[in-house]
Amino acid sequence: MDFIVKMAIGCVAGFAITLILLHFLPGEKIILGHDRGRKFAQGAEVNIGKPTGVGFYFILVFLIVTSVICFIVEPLSSGKGLFESGNAVSGLGFGLLAILAEMVTGWLDDRSKKPWNEYVKGALDVVVSLIAALICVHFFGTRVYIAITGTYFDIHPVLFYILTVILFIVSINATNATDGIDGLSGTLSLLAVFTTFLMGFMAGSLIDANSILVTIVFVPAILAYLIYNFNPSKMLMGDAGSRSLGLFIGFFLVYCRVPFLYLLVGLPFLCDGGISILKITVGRLTKKKIILFKNITTPLHDELRKNRKFSVKRVWLVLVLIAGMLDFIYVFVSSALRLFGAV
Question: Global pTM?
Fold first, then answer.
């Protein structure tokens, strides 16, 4: 089958199937939970009772459509010889299974009558991250590209493994913490994945055409979800969506060989949700003897809503514009440097 046709099928299927499932929410009473509210989240009361955990639908659509397009409908080249270690396409398949596992753990929490203990969720995140990082080291090798320069270097496998585990855990939790404003986590995830795709392609690391198909399915699926999640939202992705999105962002960065790009594409997540996690962690480790960001309500979107009196739509617009500008500037500067031969 022609590659363009495969792209078209993936794009249309990702969007249409997600849109239909979210419109009808089949099996809602069995599959989904309902938002319980968050004790300290600004404006969380408006979401109480809304269907949550719909990440179950769009993540499942993304995984199934991607798998069918990449591995069943005339599979592409295995990637052997192009990557430093193993079989890149096999690694992609196992990576998708790890994302499925992360989605399932989040979904089970979403539909439970009582929220899971955060230490249990944290332990599950660590287990999935350890496995996903092992997949990356074995199948993709440890070569890393610096997108802005087009140069690359190899990292010792043990160090690469440790850094990858940290990347996955941070990305999972920062993305999850950002999911407190309608449309925010989904939109920031779109920007992160699309920028990763561009920079991976620019650096020459996107040599596996399946990476294009992954992106072409992911973007429409998330766009379909955002139709129902923009303010005022009708449904919420829950941990099933946010935690698996976080793992996918980290995994895709490694797959495209630009993991350090998370310092840019992940910056909005780190500034919004990451500082909240850091504040809580330091406070607990020091038994509240050290409280970071005392005068700032975290996550940052709560600071903007509670203390700056921003509306939900304004918070979304400000954070997305900042993230988009950072990504655009980086892509533009990288393109200019490579175009004019400055690097």
Answer: 0.92
